[in-house]
Protein 1
Amino acid sequence: MKLFRHETRQASEESRRLYALFELFHTLADFGAATLFIMGSIMFFSEQWVTFGTWLFLIGSFLFALKPSLRLWCEIRLYRMHNYDELADRGQE
């Protein structure tokens, strides 16, 4: 079974639930990053708020970086859920 395959995400009820949970986190990271970038952009219109706006940009950037990390983590977990034979073989080596 390969990473990033649709069949892996639909293989069982457990994998569908896990994939849905990670999709929710991925979407929340998207909204959080977008919101922080919008707020940061607005704050750049005032000299008093530039520093705080810069912090919002930085935090938003971390949220954008979180997205591919979540996707990879989810795919690895799904892969491991359905490769019991291969994992068992690795444990015996």
Protein 2
Amino acid sequence: MSVKKAIIPAAGLGTRFLPATKSMPKEMLPIIDTPVIQYVVEEAINSGIEDLIIITGRGKKAIEDYFDDSPELEMHLANKKNTEMLNLVRDVSSLVDIHYIRQKEPNGLGDAILRAKKHIGNEPFAVLLGDDIIMNGKPCTAQLIDQFEKYGRSTIAVEEVPYDKLSSYGIIKGKPVADSLYVLEDIVEKPAPEKAPSNIGAIGRYVFTPEIFDCIKEAGPGVGNEIQLTDGIRVLSKTQKVYAYEFKGKRFDTGDKLGYIKATIDFALENKDLKDDVLEYLGKVLSSEDTPFRKMLFEGMKQKDALTKIESETFEVEN
């Protein structure tokens, strides 16, 4: 059965971006001039998804408004004969038919996905988290769907995670079965680095068989006393194979401040109207000794050199 439905959970509070997200959904934070969630919606569409469910919550109406028609704005742009911008606005509202389901209170990713059970029915479906933007010629979700169609089992996207970030991910233990593909043996939600089963973590893209719903319910509350999707995946893996696929592409975690800045810079450098000016500005920042950035960079380099020297001297003493 082909994958034509997808869920985008977008009910989180976005506390890492307060105070901005006090009145603005984190999914609507712009990368240059395009909200993060539009990149996620476009990935779903480009992966063959025809039926899209966005899980929202209190204070998320801006997402619905963004993907809705805007007659007043369209009329204003038409009167101004701004055809290019008018077409852009109309394109946004005609991307795909979107259904909205309210999660009454933030109770974990697993709980958000359960909200869509009636709409999904007994069909396979994809899940795309709104925090992750993944750049690649072939969308990450399409890569997972290819694996699902080949093996007929739930498939999650994974990548190598830095040691100091292991406690922020669901970390897998997997048995390699093909190039970039593992059979899941275990998955642990946000483990302490020294207890992590590997350095390979699940990121915000999944394709599931419908059995995942019952497994999420069976797992019950987990870390933070919330309904964790990771726990549901673990239960599912006990009854049927679950695959983990190291996707091709560059991922930006826009739910993290540094990840958001990286995404903004990279997308600016991909923009033909901005690239040259951004490169010129970055060159000036890096070459000027008077900028705070240059001073911080210089201080950071001195500290790094000092640490390297200490480590080297320690090694010599021990040996």
Protein 3
Amino acid sequence: MIRIRLTSIAVDDQDKAEAFYVGTLGFQVKQNIPMGSVRWLSVVSPADPEGVELSIEPGGQRPEVRAFQDWMRAQGIPWTAFQVDDIDAEHARLTRLGVAFLGDPQDMGAVRGATLNDTYGNLIMLYQAIAD
């Protein structure tokens, strides 16, 4: 059986991205290992510290990565998605903290979601499963 245990996102500044993903979104650092001029930096949900890790990869400053991020943003396509318990409450909390969303939460079939700009080159979808 195949399982997803680690996924990644490219950012242009690991230090600032760590402050956003930990301080604003509420993740906790799982790995913080120096690797020369960069780090292996990953975060997890405090609700599931042994769950899927998000590796915050350096590379957003590289032209080919930046071009991909620019294309994704122009198309309105999130790089990844995070599940939340209450999208409306999370949207309100993050908006108060200054996080920029592309719009208010919307029903999208089996989920209700909203897309935020992490300011490090990526769009991120937050979604809540809609109960039947």
Protein 4
Amino acid sequence: MAGRIEATLAELGITLPRPMPPIANYVPYVVTGNLVVVSGQVPAVDGKVAVTGKVSWGVSLDQAKEAARLCFINVLVHLKAACDGDLDRVRRVVRLGGFVAAPSEFTQHALVMNGASDLAVAVFGEAGRHARSTIGVPSLPADAAVEVEGLFEIE
């Protein structure tokens, strides 16, 4: 039987994909005590990065925001694995970190990251409200336009 969070995902029309394996020497998540750290996730669909390039240089603000949303969906995939398949164990989204590949004159990083933050709140309600950092970078692995990482409290 699906839990509360799985039901919310279904209502939002989200089906969690299979996890994309790490592309370097790291693990997708670490559980320590009641915290889960999920490594940075790119906007992958079917194992391929779906949104590549630089925001404002070929990637629109709306595309970048959707990329951040896709990144958070991929974060959820690993969070679910860390919770032994039960996302109802998540007590709080503590922090999200966002990286936006963009030229130095781009200044709307926060709007891009809202794609992930808005989904966190839609999925977890008040427990989805989180601290956040968003920074611009000259490039990301696999030419991804956005990357999102997360820190979660679980029971």
